[in-house]
Amino acid sequence: MAVITPGAPVPAASVRRGRRRPGERVIEGFLVLAAVVSIATTIGIVVSLLFPTVEFFGEVSIIEFVTGTQWTPLFSIKQYGVLPLLVGTLWVTLIATVIAVPLGIGAAIYLSEYARPGTRKLLKPILEVLAGIPTVVYGFFALTFLNPLLIDLWPSDDKPEFQNLLVAGIAMGIMIVPTVASLAEDAMSAVPQSLREGAYALASTKMQVATRVVVPGALSGIVAAIVLGVSRALGETMIVTIAAGLKTDGIPWSPIDGAATMTSFIAGAAQGDLPVDSLDYLTIFAVGTTLFLFTFALNALSIRLVRKFREVYE
Amino acid sequence: MSDPNRKAPDVTDTVSSTRPAPPPVALVNPANRNEGAPRGDDEQVLRLEDVNIFYGDYQAVRGVDMTIGRHQITALIGPSGCGKSTVLRSLNRMNDLIPGARVAGRVTYHGEDLYAREVDPIEVRRRIGMVFQKPNPFPKSIYDNIAYGPRVTGMRVSNMDELVEKALRRAALWDEVKDKRKQSALALSGGQQQRLCIARTIAVSPEVILMDEPCSALDPIATSKIEDLMFELSRDYTIVIVTHNMQQAARVSHRTAFFTAEVDEQGERHGRLIEYDTTNKIFTNPAQKRTEEYITGRFG
Ligand SMILES: Nc1ncnc2c1ncn2[C@@H]1O[C@H](COP(=O)(O)OP(=O)(O)O)[C@@H](O)[C@H]1O
Ligand SMILES: [Mg+2]
Q1: Which of A37, A169, A238, B95 could form an S-S bond across to A92 if both were Cys, CB 3.0 to 4.6 Å?
Q2: Which regions span the lipid bilayer (chain A) (predicted)?
């Protein structure tokens, strides 16, 4: 760096163009490339799902696909009703949500409103580490610990199966608690302190401040946290493959039945050596597209909700 | 003052409570008080005796003694950082919310020590409300902003619409918002938001209203509206206002306390009360040189 003497005129050359550092160009190019690659990948995924799916529906009617109650493409009598997979997925997602939402929001309220600053500093990173535990670990936790416990404690004689949707849902719920809690806590911490003070000055208890001011004020972020948790549950594969089994020959009316979900079917089917371009192989894409539509709908819904509840704080 | 059941006071009636024999005045609903209550009566509502306030190890305020009279507007003035807000917040235990903040000495409300073990800070804040420097309406409708206090304090309200209207009228906001009560409070102008915050405070029928530079974020027209309002409210409420606008203190207050920061032997700055008297005396014939220097603009 040139030393500039106070009062001395600044050299004229320094304002001319052309002295732009070459590194700037390279970085800009890299950033454009990154953006293009990610968009292209997304388009690529959609296209690679779409063509085999169209081909699949050339051979199997959509009506059969959405109304059939058995999914047995790998059996000798082939049936292509996706409902068993769909219901399995919905059970697991529902159970996981029912567990993760109250626990996650509760933990977030505790961290943001009740915990002392020191406690929060300690707990928040732990929570974030928990969110990074591999799902296969949760799967075995469900199968070898939760399920025996569940079967032991089950009140009626109609015990849960060795692998079942309930235990997978519970494990999945536990898995997404840290995600929901951490994101919801971020949203609550972003609620201005001045609103809390206003509420306290109106003789609110701590609980009232949390539930009537902080939670409504952070609703947009809380909804986003929940949706992210739910979409993780929807797309989760390992836990259900291990803990819920791969049965697909009927709709799992009860959560204590063992059944496959969309994801675990895909994972299971993709492991076998299905000949490419066989109808069996195409089922993977048909189910994949269905899953994609669900995730897409969930995200669209979340964007609307997040907008609806967004509060703009100065 | 602790009342574990948070027994619901009635808005339209005299407040009933099960707490042990408190001084009668604390239980009278200001809305029902004799309209023609004599101005400047000598009754003390709040009293500070050798009050020292700390933030952790730092002593922000040192040795404050003062009394605050019923139905008066008491102004706290002084240069920035001299502890005005700190003193104000000690009057309804808002300092409790700041980790490490501590009040030593005695602050009494109708003779009751506000910092006694058995005192419930929530009950204190129901009787001593607060309006802040920056308007802080909740991101809810105008109506819900007003109804918030009565709801959380469990007031038995027979007609919430009526209560909301009364509070809005009292805060001189009714005509401007009567057709948009269900709309977001955040859509109001800054001055309207501040009057909404006053209305919201009035809605729980406190006896005392603390205001921390309530006009500093507002334009002159909005400021003058709030000043008129304060004057009007002082018939029924006891008001303590922090301001660094001396004209404002001179215009609205009955009594003025001048604070400044002093450097002690160890070189630490502490806020101190220099002079406390009628506003007239402070502004025309202050006893202390520093007060005179401050109000004539030669210092601070
Ligand atoms: N939350 C806090 N933590 C630590 N110090 C504080 C806090 N609030 C105020 N102070 C300090 O206390 C002193 C008085 O502050 P304050 O009461 O806000 O003054 P004023 O309202 O007169 O401007 C200042 O030195 C300030 O830095
Ligand atoms: Mg201040």
Answers
A1: A169
A2: 26-51, 90-111, 123-146, 166-188, 209-230, 281-301
Q: B112 pLDDT band (50/70/90 cuts)?
A: very high
**Ligand 1 pocket by Cβ (under 6 Å):** B 55, 58, 60, 80-86, 98, 271
Backbone CA torsion sign across B274, B275, B276, B282: negative
Shortest distance between the Cα of B291 and any Cα of chain A, in A, equals: 31
Domain boundaries, chain B: 41-137+208-295
CB distance B99–A212 less than 8 Å?
Answer: no
Q: Work out the number of other CB atoms within 10 angstroms of the CB of residue A253.
A: 10
CA A169, A174, A180, A183 torsion-angle sign: negative
B118–chain A nearest CA distance, Å: 16
pLDDT tens for residues B245-257? 888 999 999 999 9
Residues measured by CB to lie within 5 Å of ligand 2, the ion: B 85
Taking domain B41-137+208-295, whether its CATH number is 3.60.15.10 is answered by no
Residues 134-163 of B with CB under 8 A from A: 134, 136-140, 148-149, 152-153
Q: Give pTM, 2 decimals.
A: 0.82
Q: How far apart are CA B222 and CA A144, in angstroms?
A: 68
Interface check for B120 against chain A (CB to CB < 8 A): the answer is no
Q: Does residue B24 register a pLDDT over 60?
A: no
ipTM: 0.85
Residues β-bridged to residue B101: B55
